[in-house]
Amino acid sequence: MKDFQSGLFLNKIPYVRAGSGPNPIVVLNGGQAFVRRPTPARALRDAKRIARLLPRNRTVYILGYEPSPPADHGIGAIVEDIARILQDEIGPAAVMGISFGGFVAARLAAAHPGLVDQLILLVSAHRFSPAGRCSIDRQIECAWRGDFEGFLEEFGLVFRRPWLNWLLRARFRQERHRLHETMNDPATIVRGLHAVAGEDFGQDPTWLTGIRAPTLIVGGTKDPFFDVDAMAETARLIPSAQLKLFERETHMLPVERARSVAKAAKAFLELHPPRRSGGPYQAAAPP
After folding, report:
1. Does the model's pTM come out above 0.85?
2. Where would I find the AB hydrolase-1 domain in this sequence (predicted)?
3. Contact, 256 vs 246, CB < 8 A?
4. Which of 29, 131, 184, 204 lies 20 to 30 A from 277 at CA?
């Protein structure tokens, strides 16, 4: 059983630390970290779910996002914040990005190759699928209007199992009268989504070739936000990447197939140990 401790990095980035082993793993959470109003209970619940996907003998940091981002909030600023945390607080680490967090993790690995030992993109890619991009645009429109019911409708069919989709929709119906209490401020949601939707990531993906870390991309063939083409393109452009696809699984692959995802992550991390062992970290020579 892991011990969980919470805190803030840079006086603004919430995190939960699980365990105390060597060779840390830094997890950049998905969009739910800024879509829902942050609470300690929700952060701990997310951390417990995510920690199950990773080896028990490693320290795991699950990072959220700035709760009140400035108006010019963008992915570049998020990347530089995470880089500072790694440089000043944690050190080089394996980095896993989940969904939205995958955008940040990939950019981090390309911009700061010396800080990322291994990279895992979980239900993520360097760009959305066409259907996923349309869904994000609709989410932004709903958030601007404060239409949280419409916003959550975009997630109505994210599970593979129909009964889980039914439960999710039932939960949304039960919460509709207090969504303004549980959802984050609309401006914060929009700024978070604009951080990744505000620029066309698929227009020039050549920046992926700057990623030097061994990379694992894990996704489902029925993911409505990141399709097989997007994930395959990401894997093709990263010099040392492998793609692990689960047939008929959706964006909720980490929930519905947690054990299988954990097995894939463990095998990848064991195959690609950290580039340092005990002594001072030596940055890899530039390509």
Report:
1. yes
2. 47-263
3. no
4. 29
